[in-house]
Amino acid sequence: MTYSASVVGGSGFTGGELLRLLDGHPEFELEQATSRSKANKTIGHQHPNLRHSDLRFSSPEDLESVDVLFAATPHGVSMEQIDAFQDAAGTVVDLSADFRLNTEEQYDEWYDGHTRPDLLEASEYALPELNRDDLAGADLIASGGCNATATILGLLPLFEADVLTGDERIVVDVKVGSSEGGAGGGEASSHPERSGVVRPYAPTGHRHEAEIQQFLGVDVSFTVHAVDMVRGASATCHVFPDGPVSKGDLWGAYRGSYEDEPFVELVAGGGGVYRYPEPKAVAGTNRAEVGFELDPANKRLVVFSAIDNMMKGSAGQAVHAANVALGIEETAGLEFQGLHPVGAP
Amino acid sequence: MTYSASVVGGSGFTGGELLRLLDGHPEFELEQATSRSKANKTIGHQHPNLRHSDLRFSSPEDLESVDVLFAATPHGVSMEQIDAFQDAAGTVVDLSADFRLNTEEQYDEWYDGHTRPDLLEASEYALPELNRDDLAGADLIASGGCNATATILGLLPLFEADVLTGDERIVVDVKVGSSEGGAGGGEASSHPERSGVVRPYAPTGHRHEAEIQQFLGVDVSFTVHAVDMVRGASATCHVFPDGPVSKGDLWGAYRGSYEDEPFVELVAGGGGVYRYPEPKAVAGTNRAEVGFELDPANKRLVVFSAIDNMMKGSAGQAVHAANVALGIEETAGLEFQGLHPVGAP
Amino acid sequence: MTYSASVVGGSGFTGGELLRLLDGHPEFELEQATSRSKANKTIGHQHPNLRHSDLRFSSPEDLESVDVLFAATPHGVSMEQIDAFQDAAGTVVDLSADFRLNTEEQYDEWYDGHTRPDLLEASEYALPELNRDDLAGADLIASGGCNATATILGLLPLFEADVLTGDERIVVDVKVGSSEGGAGGGEASSHPERSGVVRPYAPTGHRHEAEIQQFLGVDVSFTVHAVDMVRGASATCHVFPDGPVSKGDLWGAYRGSYEDEPFVELVAGGGGVYRYPEPKAVAGTNRAEVGFELDPANKRLVVFSAIDNMMKGSAGQAVHAANVALGIEETAGLEFQGLHPVGAP
Amino acid sequence: MTYSASVVGGSGFTGGELLRLLDGHPEFELEQATSRSKANKTIGHQHPNLRHSDLRFSSPEDLESVDVLFAATPHGVSMEQIDAFQDAAGTVVDLSADFRLNTEEQYDEWYDGHTRPDLLEASEYALPELNRDDLAGADLIASGGCNATATILGLLPLFEADVLTGDERIVVDVKVGSSEGGAGGGEASSHPERSGVVRPYAPTGHRHEAEIQQFLGVDVSFTVHAVDMVRGASATCHVFPDGPVSKGDLWGAYRGSYEDEPFVELVAGGGGVYRYPEPKAVAGTNRAEVGFELDPANKRLVVFSAIDNMMKGSAGQAVHAANVALGIEETAGLEFQGLHPVGAP
Question: What is the ipTM of this complex?
């Protein structure tokens, strides 16, 4: 069976990734891509990897009826348009922050007033590793924030296996690529200013802390740095467990959570160039790499987690969740293995 | 029907690309990957994008019998091992320069003495756009040089449509990424020295001129620069036709050669960011982008051609040729569309 | 003796370089920097390398009287403001294209109507290697275009030594960094789109051809590519002399033109990593590197020329010319040797 | 007065920086540069920014008598050669780790057996911000580790002002460029593998912890990541003070320690692109940028510190210390302000 699909907001970066994934998806038929600024242009005009396609952007006013609608619009748009989206499609996957949090109180703490708080509880977070069961049959799905996704995937097994209780001190130092800023970046995103940086762009108070708190029940000390790559988010979690933990216990925890997960790769060290998780190794893919190291001298556990911010951190997660929601093979359309070598992907 | 396949020399960059392509190929079954230096290690140890695979490198001495053997060994190895390769497989695709040229004289002019000149005439060049018919059923196939491939694809229609005769002056200024140097690069390939360069690394006398001469019948003034990307080869051909040529004639020539080609995209200008061929747009794919601009003031035609040096310029071309040789769907295993945005891929 | 100096348009990239050079210049005293958009902010707010300075941008309306005024304003501004500039300063150095060409006819061919054609003949081109004598005592100086500067420096000795006559075919293939687009780049200059490119951004008809024609008397086939670096312009000139030329003759020509030049380094090949001119080697400096290679098979001479587009190609050239105009030591304020290693500078 | 100087181990990266600094230093006369592998070649053959120099590398066996000898040799060499170094020069500045620690016990804990433990106590650490008084007249000076230097400069004022006592939890997450690996990097340092990385290369147990412990009296949880730049080290210190601290107190502490320091710039936030310390802003210079942000929700203080690992983190620190030791103007030879814009420096 094939499902018809559309992308609202297809000219941006995550919109382009959705178009790519749907274009190559064996079970989805891409029916429509909307873009106000690029209406009537081919999708390949904006996304050169899709030059082979004849599809043209249409105006966001004229939504076609489809089985699944993916919304890749700026924060705040989906909550305004949600009725139209749900009229057009039985399954809506939203990539913005609008429906990630569960309560109006949480939302107001980190963002500005929500216009559809009634839907906050009803929506499902798109991360199958976290809530696969709830995604089955879901009709409103909220794809997670990329930095939150990397962090949650790094820490989740420690909570699932009760290595951590939520009272521990956790520092999360994230490094992200320039695509996180989206297609309309300003002066700070210009190549001369952004090239070669290590730039603290969210030293404190990053909104993705809210998602981490919601799902792991822990406050993390969160700092995000911009570094010189286009795709990728790498979260280094410095964790201070209360008591002693062994490498064996940790491997048990991580294997317990992830051994059947199709998109999580445990990276076990060993020799060679790629001994720990790295965004390069997953660029273009829906994979997350997760690994860790113990620092007994400081009673510290260091967890590394790497994703492609636009894939596992956004569009790939969204398609994965749609696959789960509709009962399609989970890996459908997400088989790309990634490249080696690859530069600043 | 499924064909068994092996990769000899699987730890290098093009070997890794072959492994990736065969791993995802619907008609090939990857049976063996050899590497002397990495024997017994998993292929994912060397190529982190293939960590999901259980396959381990075996010694190159123990070749298994397969339908197709891909050799990604340094220049000179295949001519020494060709009997063993052909004993092991009915179809051999060699990615080195050993069997690209047709005669011993040509070979001796550009390389050092050939030990199996008897096979030079018998082997087929792997570029289907150039000799698809000869590839059908071929048992010894030579994948082309990346810079030669980019150049040939840029200029071929001009010769096929008789816009050029071979007497014209042609300057080819190529820009290539660091993967062209292979996995064992020295000091000049180290990140501090190679990063951010525009470095004339083959100002004159590049061996790929031989392939261009062989297939187009023209001597080109050829210069190759290293620039800061990992994957990619971009050939800018400055051509001086004898008489006037029109844009319409040129489009006719290019469409005539390529409109049915699954892996050549004509880039027609227009607006937006990506108006001409660019390696970024084809990174990881088997596509070539080709486009041109007229410079009437200088009676010049400028042709742009962009490929991924490891794909259309090597491993992708090899798989494409094997598909043609065995009568498989040409695009099988080569469907990846590429990414947008993507950094220095 | 010390000269007072000001920079009009100090918030842009070349304006920032002027501020840096004047800040460290032993004979100039930086009195004023103007910027409409950044008025009242410190110059270090815009240019973090100048955070030690207390100087604040002032409005361009309030020009102080100084000995030398450097104008780093967009094309077209200086011709409108030239009376005010000359009222404020006895020596005006303009970094735009407004006063580079000698005649209104030339200007109209490449740009749009000039409002002060009376000053075209009177102004002096800022390249001392070309016209040091005319610069002495000049009161209106036009700093050259970066791509033109790289090209002229590469080819000049061939004309001075009569190796070329102006009838030869010359192809100039230029690679430039992202700073050439200036501080206000749009979507194509954003990091995700600009990173890792080989992008033909001026395939034909680049305006710098006019300067080359004016000074060398030859039409060149000129194509400019954007590559992944911030600073730098590298011109590869493919030259086809009428008769045979020897390496000795060429060295004679280049040494004859440049052996006493403080800012031109002849790069003679030899071994090591840096065998030809490279922009990396001159980043941040006022040096040009020039070298060549003969291609007897194609009767071709390949000349390589590399500069920092913002230094020798703009702000450094301007300060050098001001030094000459005022009779200061030519290298004053321009002593920085550059860095090794350095990335994409 | 002018001091004669030599560099032992001049072909490496930090050796090259020493040569650059001494070449441009008003009080030092560069007499000798040694290199075993490059003996008899000009220093410009290895370091293209120094092509103007006639100096040739000599064999390290033939040390000339000079006033100051800088040793840029691998760890372990200086302790073997120290008698020869001290015979040749009254002041020896060593850039390796050999003399950084005070006691044999410390050394043995982090490195392998020291052959000259008698000199550990006698040598002075090269960081003037830490021990300017002891450097005056010193005859054996040990330049600090780059990551340690960045960290110490970030945290020092907190200890000097008693904001911290040494019992607090401190996580230091460092990002460094590829030059840290030195000129002889292996496969992991090759451009294709190193480009675009966020790679945990020292997750735990980095030797620079020893220096931090020695000078600040605190154990830090230290993790170092390789990112895509050539020069630069950025230390993000996540600090958890016992009690409340105010922004005012913190500014007081930082100003108290650094307001008279010529090479420390406090970066106070504000608007614009460069709101926090960044390695780009100090590339090529001897400056450190230091700044911070409070995270009241997590009772956390985040301190950012950025240096050029080869300058303030090595060669620049060494020259600065030599200036102090000899009573020269501290900033002599270290005046370069850095560049804007600059890529991956």
Answer: 0.97
